[in-house]
C-alpha cells in the first residue's frame, strides 16, 4: 500500500516494487512520480473524451456519415 499525504493507494506488489525501483533510480520521490503519472493519465483521458464527444456531435449533426460495417468488411475481404 502506498500512503500519500491525502490518500492511500493499493497497488499490486509488482507495481509497487517497480515504482520503488523507479524512484530509487531517478532520485524522485514516489509521490512526485505518482502525481506526474496521474496528471498525464487524466490529461490523456480528457483529450480522448473530448475527441469522442466531438465525433459523436459530428455524427448527430449529420456532418459525417456512418459507414456500413458489413459493406466495409465485405470490401476488405475482397481486397
Question: Helix and strand layout, with pairings?
Answer:
Blueprint: E1 2-4, E2 7-9, H1 13-26, H2 30-60, H3 69-78
Antiparallel strand pairs: 1-2
Please, could you describe this protein's structure?
This protein has helices spanning 13-26, 30-60, 69-78; strands at residues 2-4, 7-9. The protein is mostly helical. The longest helix has 31 residues, at 30-60. Strand 1 (2-4) and strand 2 (7-9) form a beta hairpin. It has a single domain (2-78), classed as Orthogonal Bundle (Arc Repressor Mutant). The termini are far apart. Strands 1-2 form a two-stranded antiparallel ribbon.
Q: Report strand %.
A: 5-15%
Cα-atom Rg, whole angstroms?
22 Å
**CATH architectural type:** Orthogonal Bundle
The CATH first-level class comes to Mainly Alpha
Strand element count? 2
The overall average pLDDT, rounded, is 91
| CATH structural fold name | Arc Repressor Mutant
Q: Which series of helices and strands comes N to C?
A: EEHHH
- The poorly predicted ranges are none
Please tell me what the overall shape is.
Answer: elongated
Provide a quick synopsis of the model.
This protein has 79 residues and is mostly helical. The chain has helices at 13-26, 30-60, 69-78; strands at 2-4, 7-9.
Task: List its salient traits.
79 residues, mainly alpha, Arc Repressor Mutant, two-stranded antiparallel ribbon, 3 helices, 70% helix, elongated
Amino acid at each position: 500500500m502506498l500512503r500519500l499525504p491525502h490518500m492511500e493507494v493499493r497497488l499490486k506488489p509488482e507495481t509497487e516494487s517497480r515504482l520503488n525501483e523507479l524512484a530509487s533510480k531517478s532520485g524522485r520521490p514516489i509521490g512526485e512520480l505518482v502525481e506526474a503519472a496521474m496528471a498525464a493519465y487524466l490529461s490523456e483521458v480528457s483529450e480522448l473524451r473530448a475527441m469522442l464527444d466531438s465525433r459523436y456531435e459530428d455524427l448527430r449533426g449529420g456532418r459525417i456519415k456512418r459507414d456500413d460495417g458489413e459493406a466495409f468488411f465485405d470490401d476488405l475481404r475482397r481486397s
